[in-house]
Amino acid sequence: MKIICSICFLFASCFVLAQQKGVDKNFHVYLLIGQSNMAGRGQLDAVSKEVHPQVLMLDQGNNWVPATDPVHYDKPAAAGVGPGISFAREMLGNDKKTKIGLIPCALGGSPIKVWEPGAVYLKEFHPYDDAIRRARLAMQQGVLKGIIWHQGESDNDSARATVYLDKLTTLINRLRTDLQQPDLPFVAGEIGYFNKVNHINAIIHQLPQRVPTTAVVSARDLTDKGDRLHFDAPSARELGKRYAAAIQELQRRNASKAALLASGKKKQAKQPVVVLTFDDAEISHYTIVAPLLKKYNFDATFFVCEMPRKSPADSVHYMKWPQIAALHQMGFEIGNHTGHHKNMTKLSREEMQQEVNYIEYKCREYGIPKPISFAYPGNRADSLSQVVLQEMGYRFARAGGSSYYDPVQDGRLVIPSYTMGSSEKLGARTWSALKSLQPGQILIFTIHGVPDIAHPDYTTSVAAFTEHLHYMKQHGLKVIAVRDLGKYIPADQKENPVTKPLKNTYE
Ligand SMILES: [Zn+2]
Questions:
Q1: How far does residue 499's CA lie from ligand 1's centre (Å)?
Q2: Fewest CB within 10 angstroms: 32, 83, 186, 366, which?
Q3: If you measure from the C-alpha of residue 332 to the centroid of ligand 1, how many angstroms do you get, rounded to a whole number?
Q4: Which pLDDT value is given to residue 18?
Q5: Which of 388, 339, 377 is CA-nearest to residue 361?
Q6: Distance from the CA of 489 to the center of ligand 1, in angstroms?
Q7: Distance from the CA of 307 to the center of ligand 1, in angstroms?
Q8: Structural domain total, the chain
Q9: Pairing mode of beta strands 442-447, 273-279
């Protein structure tokens, strides 16, 4: 006890000094929030008492003290080993310069609905307000570098799970606003696979697609302490390491984004960018779209294929190769959509190569340069198709997913897009995506026929299409082809483009 106290004293005096000097940029603080598995319920053991000179925690009295388990004080009788300390140690690695400060604010049993301003939990706690207050206190001395969140067991039923993602999205946005860090890394953890039912994990997995600079860590292979609810101490520590790896990846992306902005590309990204892509070699691309685009002086990419015909009469709905060549001569980009609109995820490596080669062969025949942009038929992409496209010299490949394209987060071989259309659902989504577009953001549209006689579900009326072009012109949006995306992509993405494919990319 004596030893611990004198260490406390040493740390305390260090931090009195630090406080006088203001924020120490080598003091990285992290907010720990959620419920019991973040607070820690693993059995305390000898390791729990080991002190690392560079790992501190903010105690209940708001003092920085050496971190030991239990880090949390929410339920003193139950508190044990959580992911916090192993997270901090993993974040440090061999770094001798940095200190890590943990801000424990998790509360056992707290449902997500109490994680909002003004909410009270168990009479004495204000989960959200306390977390903000303590984070701000910590930020007087250190730099807030991320939030780790483990929660969900109290919302783990079918009714609550359906609203969980919306609530979590609101919470993250609010935390970032209140802490004045719009890009603050946020990592959520899966709940244990040992829970009797699990409605939450599938929902949490959608988070990274919904909210930028977030990640989810897996709880696979982690074990419970026998209650089918709480991680045992070794699993809690392993979870902490997984949080660290995810936070480091988000921090790397933020750094990469910052470097890109600093490298003078800022100006280029300032203007909102729209990329127009047209799929399936519809005849209206030649008869209606190209003349309209010329009128507005907009560039575009036409992803062509030879769509299998249901009957010979169907041919009238599609362009013939001389018409495709004419689009090239007008200055538009011709991209590859496979020879015969094949689902890439169902093909072998050789079949993929054949389908991609077919369009290259036809392009050569008609004096069109070898395409460098590709669009996945049906927007279905997998890792192998990315590898094959990379090998075959494709620089960009477009998928679906209905999100903006973030060149730092998204692989350039699974570029997300919004499908434009006149149906009620597509129409509303298209307009909302276009009107919400901010400077620095890139919106890619996938457009079928204008109008589309063969596929009425994906038709865009000429009136609606013209209205979109008019809006883009009026609002000074930069409208480009896929081939011009290179200048928005950071260097490390150029080298390592293959990433996990997007989920649910069909639209
Ligand atoms: Zn298609």
A1: 22
A2: 366
A3: 18
A4: 42
A5: 339
A6: 25
A7: 8
A8: 2
A9: parallel
